[in-house]
């Protein structure tokens, strides 16, 4: 795996993505948790092909601004760039944009895990 791996995920804002629907606010604008989920998706996909068989990544922390509202029907993109690797810990710079420019940016940590071992933790 190399520093600089990147991916951009895209989403068209639908009713279910609005803050009033997600429960994170009472306005008909893109919900912050939806923007952040798209950032996580971009990070996950940035490294997916570089992982060994049976491995995946899970989110550990995300810190992001949400600078401007985005309306229903608009398209947003989230781009993640791998900026650091420390053993199983991966660090990403994430940025979300719509047609007007940057709507949010931050940092996201993901951890490489074995799928089967991780899911086995649910069995208690």
First-to-last CA distance: 32 Å
Assign the structural class, choosing from mainly alpha, mainly beta, alpha/beta, alpha+beta, or little secondary structure: alpha+beta
The largest β sheet comes out as: 5 strands, antiparallel
Supply the number of helical segments: 3
What is the C-alpha radius of gyration, as a whole number of Å?
Answer: 15 Å
Give the topology string: H per helix, E per strand: EHHEEEEH
Shape: globular
Helices and strands in order:
Elements: E1 6-12, H1 19-22, H2 32-47, E2 55-64, E3 75-86, E4 89-98, E5 101-114, H3 115-120
Antiparallel strand pairs: 1-3, 2-5, 3-4, 4-5
What brief labels describe this structure?
124 residues, 3 helices, globular, alpha+beta, five-stranded antiparallel beta sheet, 5 strands
């Amino acid at each position: 795996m190399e520093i600089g791996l990147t991916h951009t995920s895209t989403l068209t804002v639908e009713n279910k993505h609005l803050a009033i629907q997600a429960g994170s606010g009472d306005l008909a604008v893109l919900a912050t948790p939806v923007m952040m989920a798209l950032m996580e998706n971009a990070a996950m996909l940035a490294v997916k092909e570089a992982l060994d068989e049976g491995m995946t990544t899970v989110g550990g922390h995300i810190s992001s601004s949400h600078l401007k509202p985005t309306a229903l029907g608009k398209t947003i993109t989230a781009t993640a760039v791998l900026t650091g690797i420390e053993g199983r810990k991966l660090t990403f710079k994430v940025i979300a944009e719509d047609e007007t420019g940057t709507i949010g940016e931050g940092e996201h940590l993901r951890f490489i895990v074995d799928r089967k071992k991780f899911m086995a933790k649910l069995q208690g």
